[in-house]
Amino acid sequence: MRILLTNDDGIAAEGLVCLERIAAELSDDVWVVAPAKEQSGASRALTLSEPLRVHQISEKRFTVSGTPTDCTLLAIQDLVTGQRPDLVLSGVNHGQNMGEDVTMSGTVAGAIQGMAAGVPSIALSQARMIRNQDTELRFHTAQAFAPGIIRQLLKAGWPKDAVINLNFPDVEPDEVTAVEVTRQGFRDNQTLHAQKRTDPRGRDYYWMGFRGPLSNPAEGTDLRAIYEGRISVTPLHIDLTHNACLHDLKKVLGGTPPRG
User: Fold this and answer.
1) Residue 260 lies in a domain
2) Per the count of CB atoms within 10 A, which of 154, 169, 216, 239 is most buried?
3) Structure pTM?
């Protein structure tokens, strides 16, 4: 099995080292194509206004001066030679990718681009909840469970228009209580925050970040599973249609367009 690895934290990220260890338990044919610099929050951005520069580090290891989507696209189209990847793994992200955040995640986007190219794809993230931000992430938790979960997923299969979003809880491996197949949740509070600061020259600037208490998500969601120490496995797709609204609007719009 040929596996392509990418991420949004960049080629030097600790989570990519973890992902390489995970992939090594699944295959001896592993390729890495990752951003040269951190691209967190890049979502599905493509680099369109400047050229992409590729640096080959070794036979199967490359950096790209662009986004996770750029990396996966270039890897499948050109950089991974001989045959296409059989699997794309994106991560392991520095922090959780759950709820509404999945639409901003470069990690999830790297997997979505793999799916769009017809390759089964999985995004992996290691959660960091309410702990001292100076403490190390528990990447060893992701490493302990990811190979076995991926093997089960590959055996079971999933639809071609879906990606699998794996989140590992912020606990030690022996404290993980279960694996749960979940749906995408939504927080009941706003965590994204732009903090206004002043630089040494007296000019204002803003620094984006997250704050606020944990939400109170519904049972069966990715958020609830991670909050309670369970591994979350969420199938995602990029059809953003609100079907209930679609049905309602068809009652009032359609046919000859109104004027004025």
Assistant:
1) no
2) 169
3) 0.93
User: Which of 179, 4, 1 has its CA nearest to residue 90?
Assistant: 4
Q: Which residue has the tokens 């390759």?
A: 119
Range of the domain at 15: 2-187+215-249
Count Cα atoms within 13 angstroms, Cβ side, for 165.
31
Q: Is residue 193 part of a domain?
A: no
* CATH number of the domain encompassing residue 100: 3.40.1210.10
**From CA 56, how far away is CA 63, in angstroms rounded?**
7
**Cα–Cα distance for residue pair 215/223, rounded to 1 Å:** 8
- Give pLDDT tens digits for 190-200: 667 788 889 99
Q: Of how many residues is the chain composed? A: 260
d(C-alpha 51, C-alpha 37), whole Å: 15
Whether 206 maps to a domain, the answer reads no
- Burial (CB < 10 A; 0-12, 13-18, 19+), residue 5, is buried
What does the longest C-alpha to C-alpha distance in the chain come to?
65
State pLDDT tens for residues 28-60: 999 999 999 999 989 999 999 999 999 999 999
